[in-house]
Amino acid sequence: MQALLLIDIQNDFLPNGALGVPDGDHIIPVINNIQHKFNCIIATRDWHPANHGSFASNHVNKQPGEVIQLNGLTQILWPDHCMQGSPGAELSPRINQSLLSNVIFKGTDPDIDSYSAFYDNGHLKETGLQVYLKRNGITSLYVAGLATDYCVYYTVLDALKLGYATTLITDATKGVNIHPNDSQKAIMNMEKQGAQLTTSAQILND
Ligand code: VGL
Ligand code: ZN
């Protein structure tokens, strides 16, 4: 059984959002077009409390983009984003939500970030995604969403480690690219670790 995982398609990650991914909105029609090909669609939401340790604003004299040690883990600091209950944390109203089977919230602990949809960045706590996938007999994951070089990347790596057959839909993801080739490198590494690559056109052909 297959599932489509839609990572963090939230207002703050779209152009004009607090942490807008360049051309992040381009993936929305692509994803809406392929949803009917899946029986199970799961969305994730980055869902941070206001005092989250990944926000530069919660540290003295720190700017977004700077790197710190946060409770023993290397942490890139971000602008305030996806604050619990804020409009920026809503799923984009342009993404079809009528076919969603479940929504997984992540990044709720102020002391640790959570890029992967499965665990926090220290692999200390599960988000509940794995339990849901097991309960529904899902063994194969198609991954799309934002951002290629952060949440999509770490979700795909964890999925592979957990033994899921994992496919990245390359035209249904966009990256932050703090460094120009970050997304390209992330895709190369996902493939090296065993991810399959496909396109929305390929999925529509199957
Ligand atoms: C993300 C940076 C910070 C993402 C989330 O969804 O890729 N990136 N929080
Ligand atoms: Zn975040």
Description:
- It is a single chain.
- This protein starts with a strand and ends with a helix.
- It is α/β, with parallel strands linked by helices.
- It has one domain: Isochorismatase-like (Rossmann fold), CATH 3.40.50.
- Helix content is 21%, strand content 22%.
- The longest helix has 11 residues, at 151-161.
- The strands form two sheets. A six-stranded parallel beta sheet has the order 5-2-1-6-7-8.
- It has helices spanning 27-34, 129-135, 151-161, 182-192, 200-205; strands at residues 2-7, 41-46, 67-70, 73-76, 102-106, 140-146, 165-174, 196-198.
- The model has no long low-confidence stretch (mean pLDDT 98).
- Strand 3 and strand 4 form a beta hairpin.
- The structure holds pyrazine-2-carboxylic acid and zinc ion (ZN).
- Pyrazine-2-carboxylic acid binds at residues 8, 13, 46, 78, 146-147, 150-151.
- The site of zinc ion (ZN) has 6 residues, from loops.
The molecules bound to the chains, other than polymers, are:
pyrazine-2-carboxylic acid, zinc ion
Order of helices and strands: EHEEEEHEHEHEH
Shape: globular
Q: How large is the radius of gyration?
A: 16 Å
Secondary-structure-derived class: alpha/beta
Topology:
Elements: E1 2-7, H1 27-34, E2 41-46, E3 67-70, E4 73-76, E5 102-106, H2 129-135, E6 140-146, H3 151-161, E7 165-174, H4 182-192, E8 196-198, H5 200-205
Parallel strand pairs: 1-2, 1-6, 2-5, 6-7, 7-8
Antiparallel strand pairs: 3-4
The chain binds pyrazine-2-carboxylic acid and zinc ion.
Residues 8, 13, 46, 78, 146-147, 150-151 line the site of pyrazine-2-carboxylic acid.
